[in-house]
Amino acid sequence: MNYVLAVVTGFNVSGAEEVILKARGRALSRAVDVAEVVRRRFLGGVEIGKIEIGSEEIRIEEENRTTNVSTMEITLTRSKPKPKAKPKRSQQRKKK
Amino acid sequence: MNYVLAVVTGFNVSGAEEVILKARGRALSRAVDVAEVVRRRFLGGVEIGKIEIGSEEIRIEEENRTTNVSTMEITLTRSKPKPKAKPKRSQQRKKK
Description:
The structure is a homodimer.
Chain A: H1 2-12, E1 18-24, H2 28-42, E2 46-60, E3 65-78
Antiparallel strand pairs in A: 1-3, 2-3
């Protein structure tokens, strides 16, 4: 829930147009949870943009080896409010 | 590792052009792991295509309530082998 708050703060207080959630390993599912909660509950105008996955090599010192851990980046974008439709002008007469 | 094998089988044995990995909840990170292992180690020509996230309502019978679980779909596509460059023809003479 703290992460949700952080994202909402990013959009509302800092006025950011996009917030990127980054996660590694088992926390990937939490990043998706956060993105979904923000999208569904909090801010009507937030959309999920680019999602990227990758992997990173990390070193396990105790076992003296390296292993790969999956990574993920979810870009949340705030959709700009739509401009109000202009009131239709009554048809203007052509100047003679 | 069984999932990696399933994906590789899909591409190599069944000849599929794309394989979609689907996961829910805590298994999301495993889906990303599988996608990354396939992309990096097994098949040179596999690329990660569309990634979609969403959520699903599930019912917990014991507690008589519903909860949301995050879902993810990763599309793996096999990039087609590039057509071999045609051998350059020696310039033909125009017919007179």
